[in-house]
Recover the amino acids of this structure.
């Protein structure tokens, strides 16, 4: 009996043990059927900042989970009305009931627990039970209660045999189901909600100065988005744009809450409102003025619903790109002739998650229950779980829509653990521009920070088809932000690392200035004489087109250096990061204790150092050909800029630029400001990202199959 069958037996409440490794074995002692109706909860604990919770219930017997209820969102008095039938053989083992608050992407919060003692139940009599929830750490705390209807029946030997036969039939049916179909409804989205957060009006003051520092939180199902904070205002102007996914064909409820940012204290709740997306028409932009509850202000939004399906899950036997006709249709869809149709549809990527070898053992049995999650920005798909193995085979095909060719495909392997959150086994990050079509490749798994290898390799095959013109145009608009990211934490190691990165960039500028200054000081007469002649010639003949032309020459020079093999693409900085090892547990505790009072300030400084370092490294990596696509794009833009400036007088260009700047607000009142140069540089990887995206060479020790071939005895 494999792991999937064991999971099925758990779901019907049987403590199955292997009989020769193939059949479920039922106990020989007395057996009982326990019928439970989970009715509702009363006055459950608050675990979310909005004053509510997203509760669900787990049933356990003898440490094994036998039932998990559905999640009721935003409700402290949830009604489940779920029925479950359990088979128990020992009434001395109580039914352990635990309630949790569901948090997408985070560890679920504990809301209380209770015991139902089975030996106290009467046979064949329905009993209404109300269980008070408690926290063992705080037994006096009121956490609410659960209402159940419980009935206990005796089971005979004949019933036992019939149940064994029923389990066998259920397993055969279950085995024929495709797991991708089971996951499809919960993972594949049916459309996009494009939201522009414009402004707030007449928000209530929360600070002593009569103002607030407002920001807005959005939640649509499991997706969350948090806006930037606008300081000291009651009429904030956000002008942010983001997209959420529609998993429900009818729409769904968009939950919106407004908060006041308080440094060093808990943020204050200003107000909330809801938007029923099912009432909005598709393919049309709606300007909405939403009143917060209890007249606490107003929010102005622009909302557009687009009905589309852009992600899919299939098996290797159902693969679009393997069909020559379908592949040709997709290539035609993204051909240069269609470059100006639907600019947001840049391309598509298909990744085959084949198998993994030599994974880390996460269970006490020396095995793992691995599954994979593939993420492309905010698109997230999951394979099924392969139980009790270190060499799983998934053979799944995931298809994603590409909105930004500079996005990174992340494949993460986890170990499933029903009683706790999944254990991390390894991760790889693959920039879409680094993918070679139809090439099956073994990727060495890395740690969570993507800086060091961990145990195991994963075999992937990917194809990317995109329109280069659309991809180039999308490079100059703001990149899509992730809805769910790990919360920023104070890290002494990260602070030191970012400081060193900034220090390297500053030292480079200082050394360059010292070199130029040495020419003025005539430390080397020959070098100073050459510099003087160049300066005179350039100043005398200077034209503005020489600025992009000189940058073009720098790009060309570095390209030929790279082509000749004289300079590695990553540079010497990469080896510095590869050699870094962090001992977080030893230094984090004391650092947090020391700087807890100024935690937000430290995080701000830490992120500022990271931004400065990334900016300098990205400028450098543009000219180092770290991403050839971007370097070629830079060459194209620089050539166009040089030609434009050469043939058109500068005064006309400046005039057009000024008129455009002054009239942009009049032409589009809701236009979102952006800087094309910074948007371009945001696509260039920094030095630390180059380390994360670098392929590691697989060692022979990573593959158990190679070990067996090398050691036939």
């Amino acid at each position: 009996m494999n792991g999937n069958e064991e999971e099925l037996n758990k779901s019907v409440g049987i403590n199955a043990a292997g009989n020769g490794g193939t059949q479920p074995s039922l106990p020989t002692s007395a057996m009982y059927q326990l019928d439970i109706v989970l009715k509702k909860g009363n006055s459950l604990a608050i675990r979310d900042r909005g004053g509510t919770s997203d509760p669900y219930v787990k049933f356990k017997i003898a440490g094994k989970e036998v039932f998990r209820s559905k999640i009721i969102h935003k409700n402290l008095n949830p009604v489940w009305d779920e029925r479950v039938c359990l088979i128990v053989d020992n009434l001395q083992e109580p039914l352990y009931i635990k309630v949790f608050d569901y948090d997408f992407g985070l560890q679920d919060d504990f809301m209380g627990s209770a015991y139902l003692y089975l030996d106290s139940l009467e046979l064949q009599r329905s009993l209404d039970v109300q269980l008070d929830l408690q926290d063992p750490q705080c037994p006096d705390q009121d956490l609410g209660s659960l209402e159940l209807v419980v009935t206990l029946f005796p089971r005979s030997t004949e019933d036992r045999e019939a149940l064994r036969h029923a389990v066998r039939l259920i397993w055969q049916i279950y085995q024929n189901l495709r797991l991708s179909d089971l996951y499809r409804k919960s993972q594949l989205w049916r459309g996009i909600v494009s939201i522009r957060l414009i402004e707030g009006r007449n928000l209530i003051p929360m600070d002593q100065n009569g103002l607030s520092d407002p920001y807005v939180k959005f939640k649509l199902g499991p997706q969350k988005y948090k806006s930037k904070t606008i300081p000291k205002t009651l009429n904030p102007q956000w002008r942010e744009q983001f997209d959420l996914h529609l998993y429900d064909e009818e729409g769904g409820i968009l939950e919106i809450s407004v908060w006041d940012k308080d440094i060093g204290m808990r943020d204050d709740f200003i107000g909330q409102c809801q938007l029923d997306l099912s009432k909005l028409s598709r393919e049309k932009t709606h300007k909405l003025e939403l009143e917060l509850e209890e007249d606490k202000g107003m929010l102005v939004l622009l909302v557009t619903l687009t009905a589309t399906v852009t992600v899919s899950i299939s098996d290797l036997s159902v693969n679009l790109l393997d069909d020559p006709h379908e592949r040709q249709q997709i290539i035609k869809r993204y051909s240069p002739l269609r470059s100006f149709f639907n600019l947001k549809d840049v391309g598509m990527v298909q990744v085959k998650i084949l198998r993994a070898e030599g994974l880390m053992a996460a269970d006490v049995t020396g095995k793992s229950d691995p599954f994979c999650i593939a993420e492309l920005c905010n698109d997230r798909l999951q394979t099924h779980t392969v139980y009790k193995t270190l060499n799983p085979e998934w053979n799944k095909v995931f298809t994603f829509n590409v909105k930004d060719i500079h996005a990174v495909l992340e494949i993460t392997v986890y170990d499933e653990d029903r009683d706790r959150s999944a254990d991390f086994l390894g991760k790889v990050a693959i920039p879409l521009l680094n993918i070679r079509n139809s090439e099956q490749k073994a990727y060495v798994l890395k740690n969570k920070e993507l800086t060091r290898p961990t145990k195991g390799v994963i075999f992937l095959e990917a194809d990317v088809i995109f329109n280069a013109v659309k991809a180039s145009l999308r490079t100059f608009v703001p990149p899509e932000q992730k809805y769910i990211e790990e919360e920023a934490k104070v890290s002494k190691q990260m602070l030191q690392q970012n400081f060193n990165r900034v220090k390297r960039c500053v030292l480079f500028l200082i050394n360059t200035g010292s070199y130029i200054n040495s020419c003025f000081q005539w430390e080397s007469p020959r070098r100073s004489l050459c510099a003087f002649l160049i300066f005179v010639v350039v100043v005398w003949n200077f034209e503005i087109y020489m600025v992009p032309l000189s940058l073009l020459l720098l790009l060309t020079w570095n390209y030929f250096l790279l082509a000749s093999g004289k300079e590695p693409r990553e540079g010497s900085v990469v080896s510095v990061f590869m050699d870094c090892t962090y001992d977080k547990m030893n230094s984090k505790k004391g650092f947090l204790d020391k700087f807890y009072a100024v935690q937000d300030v430290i995080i701000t400084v830490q992120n500022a150092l990271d931004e400065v370092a990334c900016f300098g490294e990205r400028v450098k990596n543009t000219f180092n050909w770290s991403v050839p696509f971007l370097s070629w794009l830079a060459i194209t833009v620089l050539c166009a800029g040089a030609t434009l400036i050469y043939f058109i007088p500068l005064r006309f260009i400046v005039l057009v630029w000024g008129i455009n700047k002054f009239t942009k607000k009049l032409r589009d009142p809701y236009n979102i400001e952006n800087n094309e140069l910074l948007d371009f540089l945001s696509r260039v990887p920094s030095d630390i990202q180059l380390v994360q995206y670098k392929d590691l060479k697989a060692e022979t020790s990573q593959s158990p199959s190679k070990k067996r071939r090398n050691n036939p005895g």
In short: The first strand starts at residue 17 and ends at 19. Residues 1-28, 171-186, 568-591 have pLDDT under 50 and may be disordered. Residues 49 and 256 are 12 Å apart (CA to CA). The longest helix spans residues 492-520.
